[in-house]
Amino acid sequence: MGISYTPKSKARDNRYLVSVKEYTQYHRDGYLVVRGLLSKEDTGLLYDLAERTRLGGINTKGNESSYQPEDPESKDPLSGEFIHQTRVHMVSRLDKTAEWGLLHPRILDVTEALVGPDVYALQSMMFLNPPGRGGQGWHQDSYYIKTHPDTMVGAWIALEEVDEENGCLWVVPGSNHEPIYPPEGNNGGGNVHAVDAFKDLRSVENVSHLDDEVNTLSKVVSNYPPPIPVPMQPGDVLFFHSHLFHRSYPNRTQDRFRRAYVCHYCNARSWVPWDHDGYEGESGNYRQILARGRTQLPYAEPAFGTEIYLSEAEDESDSVRMMGMDDGMMMPVVQKKE
Ligand SMILES: O=C(O)CCC(=O)C(=O)O
């Protein structure tokens, strides 16, 4: 016997309605650019947040040690980027505007259509990428953050014009259909969704490294037609699948930043054994904000009181049974709630 709960989005002015073409493109190619999704005003608020972050106006708990010399011994390909403060993680846990950006209703409108109806907001990253810095080599986001079943999607919000010069994102269309490639010798790591279920899943080294000679995920990338750049205008949002091969290059301009706010979401019925700050117990679900729909799993509420629009469906509804008819058709038969 089934339950006839039908998720119903809360009505709202200015709701973004996703077209079937957009939905299909996202699931086929692994990415979707929604032009002008955020208004000029809203993009401006996030741009100001980027500037406050850059100028140290947000307490980033030990991250504020900007512009220190890079550790040449470090094996972490991203260490230099953190040291030089080209990106700051989880600003949404530190700042009201950052939480509002993570839970922006129009971004959630799209996310709900792509991976919903139930949506967790997982994480936020502010990228600053000053001249000469930034960039992240080929990687898949679920290599770092596991959601199980794997339903994660990223939203890359351009806060200013981004192009090949200042380091826009590059994507490999269709690579979202690949599994996650695990690190060398890692038993159950790299967040492969079904460890030991593959016979020929090769391991990769130095994922995210800027140098394609060292980052061996680039060998798998080379099986595809040439990657494509995604130039964007402020307020455009790129939604990208968490298995998509993607990368960025360092900002090669001398006088332009490349500011972008990047957030991640997943279906709120997924187990999330991840939390940026560490967690207690078997999962980090209780730290993830329920942003749309509902869930039987633990969840967090917005810490700064950002308004969210959860499901409007009634709490309990009638049950539905599928009955076989003489002509072979299946018919739903509603059983009224007492
Ligand atoms: O914006 C960038 O430079 C890299 C972002 C990225 O690859 C990611 O968020 O997964």
From TrEMBL:
It comes from Cohnella lupini. Residues 58-78 are annotated as: Disordered. InterPro entries: Phytyl_CoA_dOase-like. It holds the Pfam family PhyH. GO terms for molecular function: 2-oxoglutarate-dependent dioxygenase activity; iron ion binding. PANTHER family: ECTOINE DIOXYGENASE, PHYTANOYL-COA DIOXYGENASE DOMAIN CONTAINING 1. This is Chlorinating enzyme.
